[in-house]
C-alpha cells in the first residue's frame, strides 16, 4: 500500500517550478517547488553568491535549474552537505561550467543513505548524478566572491555553513529547518547539531539563508534558542529512558503536539525521519557524550 501511495506522489513531485529572486548583496536565490514540497510545506533553495553556487537543488527539477542558470558565470559549486535534494544537479552543472564541486569530507559521499536511496528519496527528489567532489578547505575563493567554510555536522557528517563576510550572510543548508527540537533522520546526532548551531551563532551573522526557504535577519537568538531546545530535549530523553520509560512514551512526553504530522512524515519517509529517531539518537549519542 505504501509503495502504491509513493508511486502516486511521484507523478506529482515531477511538476516542479522555480522562482529566481535577487536578495541584494550580490546574492541570488533559486527557490524550487514541486507538489511534494508543497505537501511538506517547504521549498528547496539554492543560492548564487557572485560566481559561487551554494547547493544545486534536486535532480527532478534539473531542466529548470539548468535554464535558470543559463546566463550565469559559475566558477565553483559549494555544497552545504551531500544529500540529494541539495546536490542533485551538481554533476550536470560541473560539466556545463567545467568547475569544481566542493564538499566537506567527500569520503562520506555514499553515506547516510546515498549509496542506495530509499524509494521515497528517489521518487521525491530524483536520483542525483555522479560527480567528482573536491575536499573543502577553510575558504572557497571565486573570481569576485569568497565564502568561509564553517564545519557544522549533526544533520550530516558532510555539513558546513558558508559565511559571506562582507554582507555577513550565512548559508546554513539543513542546519536550521525548524525552530526547537524536532524530528530527525536516522543518522543524525543532536549533540553535534546543537554545537554547530552555537558555532554559527558565534559568527554573529546579519542574515541566515537556509536550504529550505527560511530567510532570517539577525538570527543569533534563533540559533541559540534551537541549540538550547535540542539540548534540553536530548537530556530529558536520556533521563526518561534511564527511568524505564519506553522510547515511544518518551516521544509523547517530549513532543506532546503534532503527532499526526509526525506520523505522516514517518510513513512518507519509510521511518527515516521521525521524532522517535530524535529520542533514539539522544540516547545513543548521549553515551558518547559521557
Tell me what you see in this structure.
The protein is an alpha/beta fold and 290 residues long. The chain has eleven helices and 15 strands. The strands form three sheets. The chain has a seven-stranded mixed beta sheet. A six-stranded mixed beta sheet has the order 8-9-10-11-13-14. About 3% of the residues have low confidence.
Quick recap of the structure?
The chain contains 11 helices and 15 strands. The chain is an alpha/beta fold.
Strand order of the largest sheet: 1-2-3-4-5-6-7
> In whole angstroms, how far apart are the ends?
43 Å
**Average pLDDT, to the nearest integer?**
92
| Rounded radius of gyration (Å) | 19 Å
Give me the CATH architecture, please: 4-Layer Sandwich
| Secondary-structure element pattern, one letter each | HEEHEEHEHHEHEEEEEEHEEHHHEH
The tally of strands reads 15
Continuous helix count? 11
Binned, the helix content reads 25-40%
Give me the CATH superfamily: Ribonuclease Z/Hydroxyacylglutathione hydrolase-like
Class from secondary-structure proportions:
alpha/beta
List keywords for this structure.
single chain, 290 residues, alpha/beta, Metallo-beta-lactamase, Chain A, 7-stranded mixed sheet, 6-stranded mixed sheet, globular
Topology summary:
Elements: H1 2-13, E1 17-24, E2 27-33, H2 35-40, E3 44-49, E4 52-54, H3 62-68, E5 76-78, H4 84-87, H5 90-97, E6 101-103, H6 119-125, E7 133-135, E8 139-141, E9 146-151, E10 160-164, E11 169-173, E12 184-185, H7 190-201, E13 207-210, E14 215-217, H8 220-242, H9 247-254, H10 259-268, E15 273-274, H11 275-289
Parallel strand pairs: 4-5, 5-6, 6-7, 11-13
Antiparallel strand pairs: 1-2, 2-3, 3-4, 8-9, 9-10, 10-11, 12-15, 13-14
Helix pairs in contact: 1-6, 7-8, 8-9, 8-11, 9-11
Amino acid at each position: 500500500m505504501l509503495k502504491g501511495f509513493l508511486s502516486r506522489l511521484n507523478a506529482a513531485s515531477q511538476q516542479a517550478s522555480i522562482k529566481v529572486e535577487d536578495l541584494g548583496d550580490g546574492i541570488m536565490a533559486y527557490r524550487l517547488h514541486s507538489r511534494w514540497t508543497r505537501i511538506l510545506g517547504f521549498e528547496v533553495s539554492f543560492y548564487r553568491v557572485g560566481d559561487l553556487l551554494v547547493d544545486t537543488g534536486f535532480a527532478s527539477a534539473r531542466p529548470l535549474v539548468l535554464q535558470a542558470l543559463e546566463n550565469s558565470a559559475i566558477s565553483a559549486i559549494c555544497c552545504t552537505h551531500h544529500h540529494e535534494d541539495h546536490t542533485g544537479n551538481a554533476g550536470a552543472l560541473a560539466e556545463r561550467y567545467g568547475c569544481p564541486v566542493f564538499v566537506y569530507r567527500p569520503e562520506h559521499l555514499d553515506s547516510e543513505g546515498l549509496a542506495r536511496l530509499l524509494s521515497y528519496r528517489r521518487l521525491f527528489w530524483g536520483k542525483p548524478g555522479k560527480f567528482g567532489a573536491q575536499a573543502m578547505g577553510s575558504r572557497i575563493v571565486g573570481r569576485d566572491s569568497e565564502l568561509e567554510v564553517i564545519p557544522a555536522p549533526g544533520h550530516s557528517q558532510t555539513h558546513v555553513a558558508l559565511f559571506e563576510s562582507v554582507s555577513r550572510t550565512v548559508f546554513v543548508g539543513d542546519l536550521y529547518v525548524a525552530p526547537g527540537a524536532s524530528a530527525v533522520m536516522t543518522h543524525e546526532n543532536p549533540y553535534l547539531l546543537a554545537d554547530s548551531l552555537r558555532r554559527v551563532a558565534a559568527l554573529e551573522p546579519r542574515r541566515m539563508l537556509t536550504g529550505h526557504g527560511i530567510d532570517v535577519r539577525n538570527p543569533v537568538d534563533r540559533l541559540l534558542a534551537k541549540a538550547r531546545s535540542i539540548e534540553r530535549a536530548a537530556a530529558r530523553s536520556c533521563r526518561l529512558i534511564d527511568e524505564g520509560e519506553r522510547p515511544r512514551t518518551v516521544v509523547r512526553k517530549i513532543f506532546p503536539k503534532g503527532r499526526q504530522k509526525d506520523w505522516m512524515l514517518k510513513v512518507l519517509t519509510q521511518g527515516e525521519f521521525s521524532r522517535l529517531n530524535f529520542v533514539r539518537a539522544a540516547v545513543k549519542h548521549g553515551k558518547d557524550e559521557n
